[in-house]
Amino acid sequence: MRKRICYIHVGPHKTGTTSIQWFLQENSAELLKHGYFVPESETKRGAHHALAQRLAGLDVGEHRKPLVARSIAAIAETPAQAIIISSEALEGLLRNRPNTEAFFNRLCELSLEPKLILFPRNQPQWINSSYASTVTAFRRSDSFESCAIGFAQSPDARFSRWIQLAETHGAELIARPFSKETLRRGVIPEFRRSIGITSSQFRDRAVRRNEAVGPFTVSMAREYYARSEIK
User: Fold this and answer.
1) CB atoms within 10 A of CB 63
2) C-alpha distances out from residue 130 to 54, 126, 151, 196, 197, Å
3) What are the C-alpha distances in Å from 122 to residues 8, 166, 170?
4) What is the pLDDT tens value at each position of the chain, 231 positions in all?
5) Which residues contact 17 (CB under 8 A, 6 or more apart)?
6) How far apart are CA 14 and CA 2, in angstroms?
7) pTM of the model
8) Topology given in CATH for the domain delimited by 4-123+160-210
9) SS (H, E, C) the chain
């Protein structure tokens, strides 16, 4: 059986993932006409977190099992020659060897040829954006310095691991820099090119990116979160 291509958008976080997932969800019918199948998503934004977890051998819970089962069956049955999966959760899932083995073995069983799509971002900008968003979402109250040190020690800070992972599992790695130019032009055109679509007929639905916040907002959020933890 001839293998079909499976484009796997792995993120990372804070690189336009929400915009890409909205684009895939809003244009799924048109993409199918061009030979690209986008599985059903369990989220309103179009992400495939549950599907990625199941392909990686994890239990997705009773309430998500039927949808994931339908998605996997649809992937196996679709006549489309390309499948597109988008989940930044794979950034963490593919750090775990058993999950990684299960994920690529399942793709092989489905006769899919994996192509990983990654948008590396300038690390200082990435740290700053991630820190601001987690603080203002009341998920942390430590200092920026602490966050930066933790990030530097994290496996996510080394994009080279994706090269090794792709080589180990016979996957093509398609890396597109998430730069200021990407922000200016929009990440969707860059994503379209990464999967071989040059047509401009698809709707690049505008998705409001997280607004940047200043140091005052960050400091207030940190103080509020710290006080709530004490209580």
Assistant:
1) 9
2) 27, 6, 10, 30, 30
3) 21, 21, 27
4) 578 999 999 988 888 899 999 999 999 999 999 999 999 999 888 999 999 999 999 999 999 999 999 999 999 999 999 999 999 999 999 999 999 999 999 999 999 999 999 998 766 555 556 656 655 556 666 666 676 666 666 666 667 889 999 999 999 999 998 888 888 888 999 999 999 987 666 665 545 445 454 443 445 444 544 555 545
5) 9, 11, 47, 86, 88
6) 35
7) 0.79
8) Rossmann fold (3.40.50)
9) CCCEEEEEECCCCCCCHHHHHHHHHHCHHHHHHCCEECCCCCCCCCCCHHHHHHHCCCCCCCCCHHHHHHHHHHHHHCCCCEEEEECCCHHHHCCCHHHHHHHHHHHHHCCEEEEEEECCECHHHHHHHHHHHHHHCCCCCCCHHHHHHHHHCCHHHCCHHHHHHHHHCCCEEEECCECHHHHHHCHHHHHHHHCCCCCCCCCCCCCCCCCCCCHHHHHHHHHHHHHHHHC
